[in-house]
Design a protein that fits this description.
Oligomer: single chain
GO molecular function: adenosylmethionine-8-amino-7-oxononanoate transaminase activity; pyridoxal phosphate binding
Radius of gyration: 22 Å
Number of domains: 2
Family: Belongs to the class-III pyridoxal-phosphate-dependent aminotransferase family. BioA subfamily.
Shape: globular
Pathway: Cofactor biosynthesis; biotin biosynthesis; 7,8-diaminononanoate from 8-amino-7-oxononanoate (SAM route): step 1/1
Helix content: 25-40%
Subcellular location: Cytoplasm
Distance between the termini: 57 Å
CATH superfamily of the largest domain: Type I PLP-dependent aspartate aminotransferase-like (Major domain)
Number of strands: 16
CATH architecture of the largest domain: 3-Layer(aba) Sandwich
Strand order of the largest sheet: 4-12-11-10-7-5-6
Structural class: alpha/beta
CATH class of the largest domain: Alpha Beta
Cofactor: pyridoxal 5'-phosphate
Number of helices: 13
């Protein structure tokens, strides 16, 4: 498809939903007709350096010949087949690779079709496990505030209950238990009382808690916050003490994003249930996986139904499995550790001056994640346009201006991203200062 391809933007505005947008006051959208390497090509011919890896998934960049070849080969033989009563080579291949890459205790793989469904599957696994272990009252999930685990109903129930994206659904969402978010920053020794509230909730409710779910090391869409590995170590110990399963949601952090292959490796712990997605296929097609231990699988098999009660139509889709298998081959070439380390070092150097910008609250970098947190929520539409004008694709949300670029990004491309972040943060800070001035004037003269 050429860069001169016409996109019917009027039809799009009138009829097509985009994520988290209104159909009456929609945010602007930009027409992408192709992508190459780390660049998106717009319908007007402009090229934007992608700072988001298309929501953190396209870690190998766009148009990678190895993944495309694997998908084309699979497409010509078997693009889809039901997984009920049928198996196929691609599902077996990707499952073998996942088990080899993750911790030794994880032995079973459930192949779903999106990250939210991987979380739904994990939560259902936990509830069915306790049914099989004679504790059917253990049906609640405990988590921490400022988390994000997806948009489906079970996943929504463990997202941040106060400032999160799903608060308007109220009591229609299952009421879960929430501890305060971890306070200890990444790389620091655990603050003395950081796990006290979590332990108090486990002590009071462990007889009804099936599992704790948490994003290891990095709270993503809920906070863009990096917390101490000591917190994870302590949480694993608490789950063992109170006989509660630990679900680790690595959908955003898995496959190298935080500098380790999986973020839980920073803490040297193991999950009872592990959720994977996003970079699993390199972003070329949707696929997710939920892995569990033998013990969890046996408990589910001992439950009243005798089987795990979930089976999506596109479970184990051959085309998606082929893409994932190829993506994991690239990960297993072990170029990503050097790439991610270089990205982290460059971001730390080039974003260091952001802390002096008006309206900037904090600057954080870990692995291939760079965050400028503002003191106020930003104008997403205005800042998005400012980034496009600078030839980059960065999508701010709430008070966060962040990048999670492909691992294959060049130093020159990354510098364009960080420079744009500094400039746009300055714009956001100036707008916030002007807004405060207007408010002060209104109050003094009101």
């Amino acid at each position: 498809m050429s860069a001169t391809t016409q996109i019917d933007h009027q039809f799009d505005r009138q009829h097509i939903w985009h994520p988290y947008t209104s159909m009456t006051q929609a945010l602007p959208v930009y027409g992408v007709v192709s992508a190459e390497g780390c660049e998106l090509i717009l319908d007007d011919g402009r090229r934007l350096i992608d700072g988001t890896s298309s929501w953190w998934a396209c870690v190998h960049g766009y148009g990678h010949p190895y993944i495309l070849e694997a998908m084309q080969k699979q497409l010509s033989t078997l693009s889809h087949v039901m997984f009920g009563g049928i198996t196929h080579p691609s599902a077996i291949a990707v499952s073998k690779k996942l088990l080899a890459m993750t911790s030794d205790n994880l032995t079973k793989v459930f192949l779903a079709d999106s990250g939210s469904i991987a979380v739904e599957v994990a939560m259902k696994m936990a509830l069915q496990y306790w049914q099989g272990r004679g504790a059917p009252s253990k049906q609640r999930i405990l988590t921490v505030k400022h988390g994000y685990h997806g948009d489906t109903f079970a996943a929504m129930s463990v997202c941040d209950p106060e400032g999160g994206m799903h608060t308007m659904f109220g009591e229609a969402v299952t009421q879960q238990l929430f501890a305060p978010a971890p306070k200890t920053p990444f790389g620091e020794t655990l603050i003395a009382d950081d796990l006290e509230a979590m332990e108090a909730l486990l002590n009071a409710h462990h007889q009804t808690i099936a599992a704790v779910i948490i994003e290891p090391i990095m709270q993503g869409a809920g906070a863009m916050h990096f917390y101490s590995a000591d917190y994870l170590k302590g949480l694993r110990a608490l789950c063992d003490r109170y006989k509660v399963l630990l679900i680790l949601d690595e959908i955003a952090t898995g496959f190298g994003r935080t500098g380790k292959l999986f973020a839980y490796q920073h803490a040297g712990i193991e999950a009872d249930i592990l959720c994977l997605g996003k970079a699993l296929t390199g972003g070329y097609i949707s696929l997710a996986a939920t892995l569990c231990s033998d013990e969890v699988a046996l408990g589910i098999s001992d439950s009243p139904s005798g089987v795990f009660m979930h089976g999506p139509t596109f479970m184990g889709n051959p085309l998606a499995c082929a893409a994932a298998s190829a993506s994991l081959d690239l990960i297993n070439q072990h170029q990503w550790p050097e790439q991610v380390a270089a990205i982290e070092q460059q971001m730390k150097q080039e974003l260091a001056t952001a802390s002096a910008i008006e309206g900037v609250k904090a600057v954080r970098c870990l692995g291939a994640v760079g965050v400028i947190e503002m003191t106020r929520s930003v104008n997403t539409a205005a800042l998005q346009q400012a980034f496009v004008d600078r030839g980059v694709w960065v999508r701010p949300f709430s008070s966060y201006i962040y990048i999670m670029p492909p691992y294959t990004i060049s130093a020159q491309q990354l510098s364009r991203l960080t420079q744009a972040m500094l400039e746009v943060a300055a714009i956001a800070g100036a707008e916030a200062k002007a807004s405060r001035g207007d408010e002060a004037s209104f109050i003094s003269h009101g």
